[in-house]
Amino acid sequence: MSSVYAMVLAGGVGSRLATLTEQRAKPAVPFGGKFRIIDFVLSNLANSGMFDVGLLTQYRPLSLIEHVGTGRTWDLDRKLGGLQILQPYLEQESGDWYQGTADAVYRNLAQIRQRTAEDILILSGDHVYSMDYRKIVAFHRQHRVSATVAVTPVREQETHQFGIVETDGQGKIVGFQEKPQSARGTLASMGIYVFRRDILVRLLEEDARDPESARDFGKSIFPRLIRVADVATFSFEHYWQDIGTVEAFYEANMKCLDPGHLQELTDPSWPSRTPSVDAPPARVVGTGSVRRSLVANGAVVRGDVEGSILFPGVVVEAGATVRDSILMNGCRVDGGSRVERAILDKRARTGRGCSIGGSGTAPVNAAFPDLFTTGITLLGKDVVMEDGARVGRNVCVGGNQVLSGTVEDGTTLSRRLERPTPWMARRPI
């Protein structure tokens, strides 16, 4: 695979993840008790023997860059090839940041031109899955097409969330629908593309000269290409999840409590790698209990934990209860407090006798009625709850706030949280 150059689009805003992306890029969001979302695509590349990688960043990249570092965790710290962080920059002509997925790659054409790679592999950095990229590259070369798009079937009721690909009887793309209300199929693009190097360069140059272009692969590049050349689909029927919303994030994490599913993502023969947190082993102390949960190193449980995911350094004190929840690094739940169906970002903590979330129905979130509908409650980084404070269901609390009293169901509390315009399409085709 030395003749493949991989470009990972990792600069997305991820605004539908609400306060989880208030201070970080979507690929840097923690996942599954010890990982970050970006770990899965980088692990796939390393396991596939692809070690020449460009990581394109833009929105709030600090935590992502700190996490990835030199790429050593994934054996990407190499003298020849290896991992290269491609940060955005302002050009004199445009005076603006990347305008879309295609524009991001176009602005880094110099990286493609200076390589002899036969094919360019373009990947989204915010999906969770295990995949051998050698198979799609081999398929692409065998069929001698200009480009290949990885696709996966989705449920009919979910098609409005994805780009839906239309194919002919031979698996060639003949059209697509971008998040259609009424879809003509159920094959969704996975945001994984293989291009012949010369074809991609020409397409991006032509697109850059078009003043009407959306500068996006799904909206501009592929519609242009399928009119004049064959674009193939590569079917993938294993687990793949676009962490597009708060509820999708919650469900994807909870799915990791299924031993069979977790094995698919952490198979020793195809390991998902991440930088290790230096901390002592997890401890269950005294009358503490843990059932059907994931507990990372450094966590201490003196209370009752069930159906939950505890990241490194989490502390659940005696008399506290955590149910069906996700607690990220350094969170603390003091005695007498109850957390249920909630997501607590890093270092969030309760006082004594607090309550977060709950079961049953509740009014949808007034500010984000499409994101908080099933009762999940989200607390941002470094939120502190004073003794006896209560936070209801379908609540979103931005980071660095002190809560007291009661926060009613369906409330949003944040001085900074908003819906920014993303620079990358959430669903490429």
Write the layout of secondary structure elements.
Layout (H helix, E strand, L loop, with lengths): L3 E6 L20 E2 L3 E2 L1 H10 L4 E5 L5 H7 L13 E5 L14 H6 L2 H5 L5 E6 L2 E3 L3 H11 L3 E7 L9 E5 L5 E6 L8 E10 H12 L8 H10 L4 E5 L4 E3 L3 H10 L3 H7 L17 E2 L4 E3 L2 E2 L4 E2 L2 E3 L2 E2 L4 E2 L4 E3 L2 E2 L4 E2 L4 E3 L1 E3 L10 E3 L19 E3 L4 E2 L4 E2 L4 E2 L4 E2 L2 E2 L4 E2 L16
Parallel strand pairs: 1-4, 1-6, 4-5, 8-12, 14-17, 15-18, 16-19, 17-20, 18-21, 19-22, 20-23, 21-24, 22-25, 24-26, 25-27, 26-29, 27-30, 28-31, 29-32, 30-33
Antiparallel strand pairs: 2-3, 6-11, 7-13, 8-11, 9-10
What does this protein structure show overall?
There is one protein chain. The chain is α/β, with parallel strands linked by helices and 429 residues long. It has two domains: 4-265, Spore Coat Polysaccharide Biosynthesis Protein SpsA, Chain A, CATH 3.90.550.10; 283-413, Hexapeptide repeat proteins (UDP N-Acetylglucosamine Acyltransferase, domain 1, 3 Solenoid). Helix content is 18%, strand content 26%. The protein has nine helices and 33 strands. The protein has a seven-stranded mixed sheet. Strand 4 (52-56), helix 2 and strand 5 (82-86) form a beta-alpha-beta unit. The chain starts with a strand and ends in a 16-residue tail after the last strand. Residues 418-429 have low confidence and may be disordered.
Short description:
The chain is an alpha/beta fold and about 425 residues long. The protein contains nine helices and 33 strands.
